Amino acid sequence: MESTVEKNAAMTKMQWVAGLLLAFSVIGAVLITSFEIAMYSDFSIYQKEYEKYDVLSELDMTMEDAMYVTQEMMAYLRGDRETLSVVTTVEGREQDFFNEQDRFHMGEVRDLFIGGMNIRTGACIAGVLCLVFLLATKAHIRKIVPRSYQAALGISAAAAAAIGVAAVIDFNALFVQFHHIFFDNDLWIFDPTTDYMIRMLPVGLFYDFVIRIGAIFLGILAVLLVFSLIPGRFAKKMKNN
User: Fold this and answer.
1) Above 60 in pLDDT, residue 1?
2) What is the SS3 assignment for the chain?
3) What is the CB-side half-sphere exposure of residue 178 using CA atoms within 13 A?
4) Distance CA 91, CA 56 (A)
5) 103: how many CB neighbours lie within 10 A of its CB?
6) I want to staple 19 with a disulfide (CB 3.0 to 4.6 A). Which of 1, 56, 148, 209 is the partner?
7) Of the given ranges (107-116, 184-193, 229-238), which has the lowest mean pLDDT?
8) Average of pLDDT values for 134-144?
9) 232: Cβ–Cβ under 8 A, 6 or more apart, which residues?
10) Residues sharing a CB contact under 8 Å with residue 102, sequence separation 6 or more, in sequence order
């Protein structure tokens, strides 16, 4: 029969696994939330990007119309409107800003967006279940949760650093590779002479948003890291006293 020591050891391993799953769930949820914050919390960032890359002269449209198109497009990606069709004044005439290729590709992007939101929900549920398990088994939460987070953070930070270095070295190559991974067609390749959307969304804009997302993501993780260090510091202080 399995001894009490062996049972305790097995339970401890399960608690650490649950701690790691909790940590990765939190980090995954934070990553997706960072995307949401970067892209939806402040629409003035789009205006600044349009001014930076002079997209209005490329489109021959006003900033007001460009922002209207942007807000409707982002609402579509979030699932807040059913179709991507925005009639506005571009190149001196009133017309639909988006064509059929735009609608097809952005439909796929919308699926990624909504899929990401669903993943975040799943991560939150998984995290709660892991926490419930730790509480139910009377785990040493002040030890397991902080250390699990620090371990998961190290792995995640290494992955983020690798992506960051790749983006700095050759963002265009990373951008293309991303599309090859997530899309099984070449309809993400647009012609600036006929597609307004690619004129409004140059590659430089995507690079700036990747930096913005990364800064938010790492900032939140850094705050959580500080909180994870508090129990250890407190325990050390109590021991010294």
Assistant:
1) no
2) CCCHHHHHHHHHHHHHHHHHHHHHHHHHHHHHHHHHHHHHCCCHHHHHHHHHCCHHHHHCCCHHHHHHHHHHHHHHHCCCCCCCCCEEEECCEEEECCCHHHHHHHHHHHHHHHHHHHHHHHHHHHHHHHHHHHHHCCCCHHHHHHHHHHHHHHHHHHHHHHHHHHHHHHHHHHHHHHHHHHCCCCCCCCCCCCCHHHHHCCHHHHHHHHHHHHHHHHHHHHHHHHHHHHHHHHHHHHHHC
3) 17
4) 10
5) 15
6) 148
7) 229-238
8) 92
9) 146
10) 84, 190, 195, 196, 197
Kindly tell me if the per-residue pLDDT of 58 is higher than 60: yes
Q: Given this model, what pLDDT does residue 63 score?
A: 96
Per-residue pLDDT band at 53 (split at 50, 70, 90): very high
User: Looking at residue 239, what is its pLDDT?
Assistant: 60
The answer to whether the beta carbons of residues 17 and 129 sit under 8 Å apart is: no
CB 209 within 8 A of CB 50: no
Q: Is-contact 91 60, C-beta < 8 A?
A: yes
Residue 191, both tokens = 């012609």
- Chain position carrying tokens 């190149």: 91
**pLDDT computed for residue 5 by the predictor:** 78
- Altogether, the residues listed in the chain come to a count of 241
Q: Per-residue b/e over 134-160, b at no fewer than 16 CB within 10 Å? A: beeeebeeeebbbbbbeebbeebbeeb
What's the pTM value of the predicted model, to 2 decimals? Answer: 0.90
Task: Report the alpha-carbon angle 135-155-35, nearest 5.
Answer: 85
Q: Could you give the CA distance from residue 202 to residue 16 in angstroms, rounded to a whole number?
A: 45
